[in-house]
Amino acid sequence: MTVTDELIAANTRYRDSFTKGDLPLPPARQVAVLACMDARLDPAQVLGLAEGDAHVIRNAGGVASDDAIRSLTISQRLLGTRSIVVVHHTDCGMETFSDDQLKASIVAETGQRPAFAFEAFPDARADVVQTIRRIQTSPFIPHTDDVRGFVYDVRTGSLEEVFAS
Amino acid sequence: MTVTDELIAANTRYRDSFTKGDLPLPPARQVAVLACMDARLDPAQVLGLAEGDAHVIRNAGGVASDDAIRSLTISQRLLGTRSIVVVHHTDCGMETFSDDQLKASIVAETGQRPAFAFEAFPDARADVVQTIRRIQTSPFIPHTDDVRGFVYDVRTGSLEEVFAS
After folding, report:
1. Which residues does A156 contact at the CB level (< 8 Å), separation at least 6?
2. Which residue, of A43, A61, A79, A136, is most buried by count of CB atoms within 10 Å of its CB?
3. Which residues 36-55 on chain A approach chain B with CB closer than 8 angstroms?
Protein backbone atom coordinates (compact mmCIF):
# COMPACT_ATOMS: atom_id res chain seq x y z
CA MET A 1 0.00 0.00 0.00
CA THR A 2 1.58 3.28 -1.10
CA VAL A 3 1.22 6.61 0.70
CA THR A 4 -1.25 7.71 -1.98
CA ASP A 5 -3.35 4.60 -1.32
CA GLU A 6 -3.40 5.65 2.35
CA LEU A 7 -4.58 9.15 1.39
CA ILE A 8 -7.38 7.64 -0.71
CA ALA A 9 -8.43 5.51 2.26
CA ALA A 10 -8.44 8.62 4.45
CA ASN A 11 -10.67 10.35 1.89
CA THR A 12 -13.21 7.56 2.19
CA ARG A 13 -13.55 8.36 5.89
CA TYR A 14 -13.78 12.12 5.16
CA ARG A 15 -16.42 11.54 2.48
CA ASP A 16 -18.51 9.34 4.75
CA SER A 17 -18.95 12.14 7.29
CA PHE A 18 -19.04 15.01 4.77
CA THR A 19 -21.72 17.64 5.40
CA LYS A 20 -20.45 20.70 3.49
CA GLY A 21 -21.70 20.00 -0.02
CA ASP A 22 -23.58 23.26 -0.49
CA LEU A 23 -20.82 25.84 -0.08
CA PRO A 24 -20.63 28.58 -2.73
CA LEU A 25 -17.56 29.02 -4.96
CA PRO A 26 -16.48 32.51 -3.76
CA PRO A 27 -14.66 32.45 -0.40
CA ALA A 28 -17.05 33.45 2.39
CA ARG A 29 -14.51 35.53 4.31
CA GLN A 30 -13.15 37.29 1.21
CA VAL A 31 -9.53 36.58 2.08
CA ALA A 32 -6.67 34.89 0.24
CA VAL A 33 -3.77 33.33 2.16
CA LEU A 34 -0.33 32.99 0.55
CA ALA A 35 1.77 30.56 2.58
CA CYS A 36 4.76 28.25 2.36
CA MET A 37 4.20 24.61 1.33
CA ASP A 38 5.98 23.45 4.53
CA ALA A 39 4.55 20.24 5.95
CA ARG A 40 4.42 21.58 9.52
CA LEU A 41 2.28 24.59 8.59
CA ASP A 42 -1.43 23.85 8.11
CA PRO A 43 -2.94 27.25 7.22
CA ALA A 44 -6.51 26.12 7.94
CA GLN A 45 -5.63 25.11 11.49
CA VAL A 46 -3.13 27.90 12.17
CA LEU A 47 -5.63 30.57 11.06
CA GLY A 48 -8.89 28.91 12.05
CA LEU A 49 -10.24 28.56 8.50
CA ALA A 50 -13.18 26.27 7.71
CA GLU A 51 -14.03 24.87 4.31
CA GLY A 52 -15.42 27.68 2.17
CA ASP A 53 -13.70 30.51 4.03
CA ALA A 54 -10.58 31.46 2.07
CA HIS A 55 -8.40 30.82 -0.92
CA VAL A 56 -5.12 29.22 0.12
CA ILE A 57 -2.15 29.61 -2.24
CA ARG A 58 1.03 27.76 -1.34
CA ASN A 59 4.48 27.31 -2.84
CA ALA A 60 8.07 26.80 -1.72
CA GLY A 61 8.65 29.76 0.59
CA GLY A 62 5.24 31.36 0.25
CA VAL A 63 6.74 33.86 -2.20
CA ALA A 64 4.89 36.20 -4.58
CA SER A 65 5.97 34.37 -7.72
CA ASP A 66 4.27 35.20 -11.03
CA ASP A 67 2.08 32.18 -10.33
CA ALA A 68 1.04 33.54 -6.93
CA ILE A 69 0.27 36.89 -8.59
CA ARG A 70 -1.80 34.99 -11.17
CA SER A 71 -3.71 33.19 -8.41
CA LEU A 72 -4.27 36.37 -6.37
CA THR A 73 -5.48 38.18 -9.51
CA ILE A 74 -8.05 35.45 -10.17
CA SER A 75 -8.98 35.37 -6.47
CA GLN A 76 -9.75 39.09 -6.35
CA ARG A 77 -11.05 39.79 -9.85
CA LEU A 78 -13.23 36.73 -10.36
CA LEU A 79 -14.01 35.46 -6.87
CA GLY A 80 -14.34 38.55 -4.71
CA THR A 81 -11.53 38.36 -2.15
CA ARG A 82 -10.33 41.67 -0.71
CA SER A 83 -7.71 40.89 1.95
CA ILE A 84 -4.37 39.08 1.64
CA VAL A 85 -2.48 37.28 4.40
CA VAL A 86 1.15 36.24 3.76
CA VAL A 87 2.64 33.49 5.96
CA HIS A 88 6.31 32.51 5.99
CA HIS A 89 7.75 30.49 8.89
CA THR A 90 10.77 29.74 11.02
CA ASP A 91 13.19 26.91 10.11
CA CYS A 92 12.25 27.21 6.42
CA GLY A 93 13.92 25.02 3.81
CA MET A 94 14.38 28.13 1.64
CA GLU A 95 16.99 29.33 4.12
CA THR A 96 19.12 26.20 3.66
CA PHE A 97 20.45 26.68 0.11
CA SER A 98 21.19 29.31 -2.53
CA ASP A 99 19.80 29.49 -6.06
CA ASP A 100 23.32 29.27 -7.51
CA GLN A 101 24.13 26.19 -5.46
CA LEU A 102 20.93 24.32 -6.37
CA LYS A 103 21.21 25.23 -10.06
CA ALA A 104 24.84 24.05 -10.16
CA SER A 105 23.87 20.68 -8.66
CA ILE A 106 20.99 20.31 -11.15
CA VAL A 107 23.23 21.21 -14.09
CA ALA A 108 25.78 18.66 -12.87
CA GLU A 109 23.13 15.97 -12.76
CA THR A 110 20.88 16.77 -15.73
CA GLY A 111 23.05 18.91 -18.00
CA GLN A 112 20.32 21.56 -18.03
CA ARG A 113 19.97 24.85 -16.13
CA PRO A 114 16.47 25.76 -14.94
CA ALA A 115 15.33 29.01 -16.59
CA PHE A 116 13.50 30.10 -13.45
CA ALA A 117 14.58 31.37 -10.04
CA PHE A 118 14.30 29.00 -7.08
CA GLU A 119 13.67 31.99 -4.77
CA ALA A 120 15.88 30.85 -1.89
CA PHE A 121 16.08 33.51 0.82
CA PRO A 122 18.27 33.91 3.91
CA ASP A 123 15.71 35.50 6.22
CA ALA A 124 11.98 34.76 6.43
CA ARG A 125 11.06 38.10 8.01
CA ALA A 126 12.80 40.08 5.28
CA ASP A 127 11.24 37.89 2.61
CA VAL A 128 7.73 38.58 3.91
CA VAL A 129 8.42 42.24 3.16
CA GLN A 130 9.69 41.36 -0.34
CA THR A 131 6.60 39.27 -0.94
CA ILE A 132 4.25 42.06 0.10
CA ARG A 133 6.10 44.62 -2.03
CA ARG A 134 5.62 42.44 -5.10
CA ILE A 135 1.90 42.12 -4.32
CA GLN A 136 1.47 45.84 -3.74
CA THR A 137 3.25 46.81 -6.94
CA SER A 138 1.48 44.31 -9.17
CA PRO A 139 -0.63 46.22 -11.69
CA PHE A 140 -3.12 43.33 -11.83
CA ILE A 141 -4.17 42.91 -8.19
CA PRO A 142 -6.85 45.54 -7.54
CA HIS A 143 -7.11 45.45 -3.72
CA THR A 144 -3.84 45.97 -1.85
CA ASP A 145 -4.92 48.12 1.08
CA ASP A 146 -5.32 45.13 3.42
CA VAL A 147 -2.18 43.00 2.99
CA ARG A 148 -0.52 41.73 6.15
CA GLY A 149 2.49 39.49 6.60
CA PHE A 150 3.47 37.02 9.30
CA VAL A 151 6.18 34.58 10.31
CA TYR A 152 4.78 31.37 11.79
CA ASP A 153 6.89 29.78 14.50
CA VAL A 154 6.94 26.01 13.91
CA ARG A 155 8.14 25.43 17.48
CA THR A 156 5.34 27.32 19.25
CA GLY A 157 2.44 27.43 16.78
CA SER A 158 2.25 31.22 16.98
CA LEU A 159 2.22 33.95 14.34
CA GLU A 160 4.39 37.04 14.53
CA GLU A 161 3.21 39.98 12.42
CA VAL A 162 6.06 41.58 10.50
CA PHE A 163 4.36 43.81 7.95
CA ALA A 164 1.03 45.52 7.36
CA SER A 165 0.10 47.71 4.41
CA MET B 1 -12.17 43.98 13.52
CA THR B 2 -11.00 42.85 10.08
CA VAL B 3 -10.97 39.27 8.83
CA THR B 4 -7.19 39.18 9.37
CA ASP B 5 -7.70 40.25 12.99
CA GLU B 6 -10.08 37.31 13.34
CA LEU B 7 -7.44 34.94 11.91
CA ILE B 8 -4.89 36.26 14.41
CA ALA B 9 -7.36 35.63 17.23
CA ALA B 10 -7.88 32.09 15.94
CA ASN B 11 -4.12 31.59 15.95
CA THR B 12 -3.99 32.49 19.64
CA ARG B 13 -6.33 29.59 20.34
CA TYR B 14 -4.29 27.24 18.12
CA ARG B 15 -1.05 28.29 19.79
CA ASP B 16 -2.44 27.77 23.27
CA SER B 17 -3.12 24.08 22.58
CA PHE B 18 -0.12 23.49 20.29
CA THR B 19 1.79 20.27 20.91
CA LYS B 20 3.68 19.68 17.63
CA GLY B 21 6.77 21.81 18.12
CA ASP B 22 9.32 19.08 17.48
CA LEU B 23 8.45 17.98 13.94
CA PRO B 24 11.36 17.67 11.48
CA LEU B 25 11.57 19.80 8.32
CA PRO B 26 11.33 16.96 5.73
CA PRO B 27 7.77 15.67 5.21
CA ALA B 28 7.30 12.43 7.16
CA ARG B 29 5.22 10.72 4.47
CA GLN B 30 7.49 11.78 1.59
CA VAL B 31 4.62 13.09 -0.51
CA ALA B 32 3.87 16.42 -2.16
CA VAL B 33 0.28 17.44 -2.94
CA LEU B 34 -0.47 19.89 -5.76
CA ALA B 35 -4.03 21.18 -5.40
CA CYS B 36 -6.30 24.05 -6.35
CA MET B 37 -6.54 27.06 -4.02
CA ASP B 38 -10.34 26.64 -3.87
CA ALA B 39 -11.83 27.56 -0.50
CA ARG B 40 -13.98 24.43 -0.29
CA LEU B 41 -11.03 22.06 -0.68
CA ASP B 42 -8.92 21.54 2.45
CA PRO B 43 -6.22 19.08 1.35
CA ALA B 44 -5.26 18.17 4.91
CA GLN B 45 -8.80 17.10 5.75
CA VAL B 46 -9.65 15.60 2.36
CA LEU B 47 -6.50 13.44 2.38
CA GLY B 48 -6.08 12.86 6.12
CA LEU B 49 -2.79 14.74 6.44
CA ALA B 50 -1.44 15.77 9.83
CA GLU B 51 1.10 18.51 10.46
CA GLY B 52 4.50 17.26 9.31
CA ASP B 53 3.18 14.75 6.77
CA ALA B 54 3.34 16.37 3.33
CA HIS B 55 4.22 19.42 1.28
CA VAL B 56 1.08 21.13 0.02
CA ILE B 57 1.41 23.32 -3.07
CA ARG B 58 -1.67 25.25 -4.16
CA ASN B 59 -2.55 27.71 -6.90
CA ALA B 60 -5.50 28.71 -9.05
CA GLY B 61 -6.52 25.42 -10.66
CA GLY B 62 -3.83 23.25 -9.10
CA VAL B 63 -1.86 23.45 -12.36
CA ALA B 64 1.78 22.54 -12.95
CA SER B 65 2.93 26.11 -13.49
CA ASP B 66 6.65 26.88 -13.53
CA ASP B 67 6.21 27.81 -9.89
CA ALA B 68 4.68 24.45 -9.04
CA ILE B 69 7.57 22.75 -10.88
CA ARG B 70 9.96 24.91 -8.82
CA SER B 71 8.24 23.85 -5.60
CA LEU B 72 8.15 20.16 -6.55
CA THR B 73 11.84 20.29 -7.51
CA ILE B 74 12.74 21.72 -4.10
CA SER B 75 10.40 19.24 -2.40
CA GLN B 76 12.06 16.22 -3.99
CA ARG B 77 15.68 17.34 -4.32
CA LEU B 78 16.13 19.04 -0.95
CA LEU B 79 13.44 17.59 1.28
CA GLY B 80 13.09 13.98 0.23
CA THR B 81 9.55 13.60 -1.14
CA ARG B 82 9.02 10.81 -3.65
CA SER B 83 5.30 10.73 -4.50
CA ILE B 84 3.08 13.42 -6.04
CA VAL B 85 -0.69 13.74 -5.71
CA VAL B 86 -2.54 16.18 -8.01
CA VAL B 87 -6.01 17.37 -6.95
CA HIS B 88 -8.35 19.40 -9.15
CA HIS B 89 -12.06 19.63 -8.30
CA THR B 90 -15.60 20.01 -9.60
CA ASP B 91 -17.22 23.44 -9.99
CA CYS B 92 -13.80 25.08 -10.39
CA GLY B 93 -13.50 28.80 -11.01
CA MET B 94 -10.97 28.05 -13.77
CA GLU B 95 -13.84 26.65 -15.85
CA THR B 96 -15.78 29.93 -15.72
CA PHE B 97 -13.60 32.18 -17.91
CA SER B 98 -11.05 32.13 -20.72
CA ASP B 99 -7.54 33.60 -20.68
CA ASP B 100 -8.41 35.91 -23.60
CA GLN B 101 -11.52 37.20 -21.86
CA LEU B 102 -9.78 37.90 -18.53
CA LYS B 103 -6.80 39.55 -20.23
CA ALA B 104 -9.09 41.77 -22.30
CA SER B 105 -10.93 42.94 -19.18
CA ILE B 106 -7.62 43.65 -17.40
CA VAL B 107 -6.28 45.58 -20.40
CA ALA B 108 -9.49 47.60 -20.51
CA GLU B 109 -9.15 48.49 -16.85
CA THR B 110 -5.40 48.87 -16.37
CA GLY B 111 -4.06 49.48 -19.89
CA GLN B 112 -1.59 46.61 -19.38
CA ARG B 113 -1.65 43.00 -20.60
CA PRO B 114 -0.34 40.37 -18.18
CA ALA B 115 2.71 38.62 -19.69
CA PHE B 116 1.68 35.29 -18.13
CA ALA B 117 -1.03 32.73 -18.85
CA PHE B 118 -4.00 32.58 -16.46
CA GLU B 119 -4.33 28.83 -17.18
CA ALA B 120 -8.12 28.73 -17.44
CA PHE B 121 -9.34 25.29 -18.49
CA PRO B 122 -12.72 23.95 -19.63
CA ASP B 123 -12.52 20.51 -18.02
CA ALA B 124 -10.95 19.57 -14.70
CA ARG B 125 -10.43 15.90 -15.60
CA ALA B 126 -8.56 16.74 -18.79
CA ASP B 127 -6.50 19.33 -16.98
CA VAL B 128 -5.35 16.79 -14.38
CA VAL B 129 -3.82 14.87 -17.28
CA GLN B 130 -2.17 18.05 -18.62
CA THR B 131 -0.80 18.78 -15.16
CA ILE B 132 0.70 15.32 -14.77
CA ARG B 133 2.25 15.42 -18.26
CA ARG B 134 4.04 18.64 -17.36
CA ILE B 135 5.34 17.05 -14.15
CA GLN B 136 6.47 13.89 -15.90
CA THR B 137 8.30 15.75 -18.66
CA SER B 138 10.05 18.22 -16.38
CA PRO B 139 13.79 17.60 -16.55
CA PHE B 140 14.20 18.83 -12.97
CA ILE B 141 11.84 16.58 -11.00
CA PRO B 142 13.74 13.35 -10.36
CA HIS B 143 10.94 11.05 -9.14
CA THR B 144 7.94 10.74 -11.46
CA ASP B 145 7.07 7.07 -11.17
CA ASP B 146 4.42 7.67 -8.49
CA VAL B 147 2.29 10.58 -9.71
CA ARG B 148 -1.46 10.22 -9.41
CA GLY B 149 -4.24 12.66 -10.23
CA PHE B 150 -7.73 13.16 -8.83
CA VAL B 151 -10.83 15.28 -9.18
CA TYR B 152 -12.36 16.19 -5.81
CA ASP B 153 -16.15 16.48 -5.78
CA VAL B 154 -17.07 19.56 -3.72
CA ARG B 155 -20.65 18.28 -3.37
CA THR B 156 -19.81 14.86 -1.92
CA GLY B 157 -16.32 15.21 -0.42
CA SER B 158 -15.01 12.30 -2.48
CA LEU B 159 -12.00 11.90 -4.75
CA GLU B 160 -12.19 10.34 -8.21
CA GLU B 161 -8.90 9.09 -9.60
CA VAL B 162 -8.38 10.10 -13.21
CA PHE B 163 -4.71 9.43 -13.88
CA ALA B 164 -1.85 7.34 -12.52
CA SER B 165 1.71 7.21 -13.88
Report:
1. B15, B18, B21
2. A61
3. 37-42, 44-49, 51-55
Nearest to A68 among B14, B67, B159 (CB): B67
Residue A70, CA distances (Å) to A34, A57, B119 in order: 12, 10, 9
Q: Which residue of A51, A77, A140 is in closest CB contact with B40?
A: A51
SS3 B89: strand
Contact A148 B4 (CB under 8 A): yes
Q: What is the pLDDT of residues B84-109, one digit of tens each?
A: 999 999 999 999 999 999 999 999 99
CA–CA min distance A131, chain B (Å): 15
Task: Give the span between the Cα atoms of A38 and A30, in whole angstroms.
Answer: 24
Amino acid identity at B26: P
CB spacing of A8 vs B158 below 8 angstroms = no
Helix A66-79, helix B99-110: angle, nearest 10: 80
Cβ <8 Å between B70 and A60? yes
Report the DSSP pairing between strands B147-152 and B159-164.
antiparallel
Q: Is B57 on the interface with A (CB under 8 A)?
A: yes
Which pLDDT belongs to residue B165? 79
User: In a 3-state reduction of DSSP, which class is residue A56?
Assistant: strand
> What is the DSSP track for B148-159?
EEEEE-TTT--E
Complex ipTM tops 0.95: yes
The model's pLDDT over A77-130, given as tens digits with 9 standing for 90+, comes to 999 999 999 999 999 999 999 999 999 999 999 999 999 999 999 999 999 999
pTM of the shown model:
0.98
Q: A 78-97 residues with CB below 8 A of B?
A: 78-79, 83, 85, 91, 93-94, 96-97
pLDDT above 90 (res A163): no
* B25-162 under CATH 3.40.50.10780, yes or no: no
Report domain extents, chain A.
Answer: 25-162
